[in-house]
Amino acid sequence: MNQDTTVATNWPGWRWRLLLLLPMVLAFGMGALLWKSIGTDPNRLESNLIGKPIPELLGPSLLDQQRFLQRSDLSGQPALLNVWATWCTSCAIEHPYLIQIAKLEQVRIIGINYHDKRPQAIDWLNRLGNPYAFTVFDQQGDLGIELGVTGAPETYLVDAAGIIRARHVGILNERTWPQLRQQYQQLIADVDSQ
Amino acid sequence: MNLHCCNTHRLQQALIALSLMMCGMIQQALAAELSSDVLMEKRFADLSEQLRCPKCQNQSLADSDAIISRDLRRQLRELLQQGYSNAEVKQYMAARYGNFILYDPPVERATLVLWFAPLLLILLGAVILYRISRSHHRTSQTEHTKVDTLNQAEAKRLANLLVSQDSKVIQVTDDA
Prior knowledge:
Distance between the termini of chain B: 147 Å
Low-confidence stretches of chain A: 1-8
Strand content of chain B: under 5%
Low-confidence stretches of chain B: none
Largest sheet of chain B: none
Order of helices and strands of chain B: HHHHH
Radius of gyration of chain B: 42 Å
Shape of chain A: elongated
CATH topology of the largest domain in chain A: Glutaredoxin
Mean pLDDT of chain A: 88
Oligomer: heterodimer
CATH architecture of the largest domain in chain A: 3-Layer(aba) Sandwich
Structural class of chain A: alpha/beta
Distance between the termini of chain A: 80 Å
Structural class of chain B: mainly alpha
Mean pLDDT of chain B: 81
Radius of gyration of chain A: 25 Å
CATH class of the largest domain in chain A: Alpha Beta
């Protein structure tokens, strides 16, 4: 008690009072930081592979066991690479929307069937429809590791040269697709102008 | 017969010697392989503790049972068998999953705050502590000097006072 008063009297008053503001400043800073992170998904990570090409060798085709798919199968068109699996419940929710944009907007979508069983996956496409130009059967998740996939559903935007331009973790729907659509259409325009 | 017997005897001896020799060789080879396996296992265990599951927030590859963690553990084992060094393994993982996967992120522009904020805070605390203690020191010193000069300046007066008081007291007691 006594010590406090001696300090207070010896420090110039305004400086002492400035120090009293410190907790408030810290509290506001903390508040601003937390406010900023409201609504952002902590699972959302920046992809380190943006600007890098997808692997040369993709994997066997889901529907045609004899066929091995490669980067060249992109055939010089921008595309979405969509990671899906029959065990993934969010993929079932996403699926009709993929069919919709493939049909109505002529979006080229390439499937990556991730950690799945071939008969179930083929059955899924037969039952629910097939929005994919072709599907890579990535049974062991090897292609997944090369792309930095962390789960399903996940979608990559790839340009005509096979370079990754964007990554979206989670479901594509009318809320999330518009951001990617803009980039996709830009890539289409780039191809057309060449 | 005798000859035959001796021949088999010699053959037996030779076989025993050969098998003993081979035993030693096999043992040596086994020991070498075992120790390299143990070493590899140790590196595998260490690295899977130092790498974070990219799907989960607070689990290492070793802790996590997510599909991606199982895949990455398998990949990690494969990389080690291919002769990747620990640094190369980390580089491989960070190239695909970003620095998030490293529990020990490298010093970069984006991670500067992470690395140096604690140090700055400690420094700030030290400066504040120093200033407070110095002002304490100063006040207590001035108090002491004040007390000292008072004693010296008024020692005589005090002594006089005390003497007169004493005499008063004596007087009082005398009166009584």
